[in-house]
Design a protein that fits this description.
Layout lengths: L11 E7 L16 E7 L3 E3 L5 E8 L5 E5 L6 E5 L2 E7 L13 E3 L4 E8 L9 E14 L15 E14 L3 H15 L4 H12 L7 H7 L5 H14 L2 H10 L5 H14 L5 H6 L6 H13 L3 H30 L1
Parallel strand pairs: 3-11
Antiparallel strand pairs: 1-11, 2-4, 4-9, 5-8, 5-10, 6-7, 6-10, 7-9, 10-11
Helix pairs in contact: 1-2, 1-3, 2-4, 3-4, 4-5, 4-6, 6-8, 8-9
Length: 332
């Protein structure tokens, strides 16, 4: 069950309406708030290096139904922790916004809820209390004001939703973190896709070494998304032990797990992986080949670095050629 924070961890929400897609600094406050947003924490305390789960609720506060759709679906939320910007991603990566993959008519007083998990850019590595501020842009349309959808009749309105939530972090408990990793792994093996995908997303953000035994087990899962999540978590942990697990299991990896492993080894600068990654340049998968090229460049391979530079130069020339062609057509 979702639970709101205690009084000393209270959240506050404010709503600012912006019309016609104007930038936030050009906004004009409207007399009536049509939407309200609240963000609450799953529980009152989280351990350091534990995935932080939240729930966002968006309510239509007007007296009439409105059509709602997110701006840039899949872009996540913009979060700020102190002076550091962070991103927030939806717990279900295949549904960027719960129930809002397409436009949706939202009745008066109806609330749309969505589960969220703070990602690595907002990784908490020290105990304490953190106030996380959120801003999310959404679009809504109400051309006639009487419940008739006519999106082409009038430009949609844009609303900036501001809210904040306080997160209390406590010191990591290795035993509890191991149990958490175990419960996430068990859920990530659920035959029901909707249950499994949420667990794998949370598992992928685990950044504690206490979860290494469970992540090793996850590499043998029959579900690709579970294997991939385990690899991503190992890459985010980034310790020598986690790197050793990636190296020792690399030869058995396939699909997206292999792509994620290559990316992780490159970003971590694991030179021992260079020979294995070089072999991946001949892989039948283009995604694997592309990941291998970037990883080799990150590992300092001169040939890979030059190939990336040449590719970027070709792309720049293509853009210049396209611009010249457009200019000539306009001149004609």
């Amino acid at each position: 069950m979702w639970s709101k924070l205690s009084v000393n961890l209270a959240w506050a929400a404010a709503v600012l309406l912006v019309c016609g897609g104007a930038p936030a600094d050009e906004a004009t406050t409207q007399p009536q708030a049509l939407w309200s947003l609240s963000v609450v924490a799953l529980k009152a305390e989280y351990m350091v290096n534990e995935p932080v789960l939240l729930k966002a609720e968006l309510t239509n506060s007007s007296e009439r139904p409105l059509t709602l759709f997110w701006q840039g679906v899949g872009g996540g939320y913009e979060f700020v922790v102190g002076s550091t910007k962070a991103a927030l991603s939806c717990s279900n990566p295949s549904h960027a916004v719960s129930g809002l993959r397409t436009t949706r008519r939202v009745a008066s007083a109806e609330t749309i809820a969505e589960a969220l998990v703070l990602n690595a850019w907002c990784r908490f590595s020290a105990p304490g209390e953190y106030v996380v501020q959120c801003r999310k842009w959404v679009h809504y349309s109400d051309p006639a004001g009487v419940g008739q959808e006519q999106p082409e009749a009038e430009p949609p309105m844009r609303v900036a939703l501001l809210t904040s939530v306080a997160i209390r972090m406590i010191p990591e408990d290795s035993e509890k973190m191991g149990k958490l990793a175990g419960s996430l792994l068990q859920a990530a093996r659920d035959p029901r896709w909707d249950k499994r995908i949420q667990a794998t997303w949370q598992l992928s953000w685990l950044t504690s070494e206490a979860g290494l035994p469970q992540l090793v087990q996850g590499l043998d899962s029959k579900y690709e998304e579970t294997r991939s999540a385990a690899v991503q978590a190992l890459g985010r942990i980034g310790s020598p032990a986690a790197s050793d697990v990636l190296l020792s299991n690399f030869g058995e990896m396939r699909g997206d797990a292999k792509v994620q492993a290559i990316r992780a080894l490159g970003k971590l600068g694991i030179q021992e992986a260079r020979v294995q990654i070089q072999a991946c340049q001949e892989d039948e998968s283009q995604l694997v080949r592309e990941a291998a090229l970037v990883a080799l460049a990150e590992l300092g391979d001169p040939a890979a670095q030059q190939k990336l530079r040449d590719r970027r130069a070709d792309q720049a020339r293509s853009v210049e050629t396209l611009i010249e062609q457009l200019k000539s057509r306009v001149g004609d």
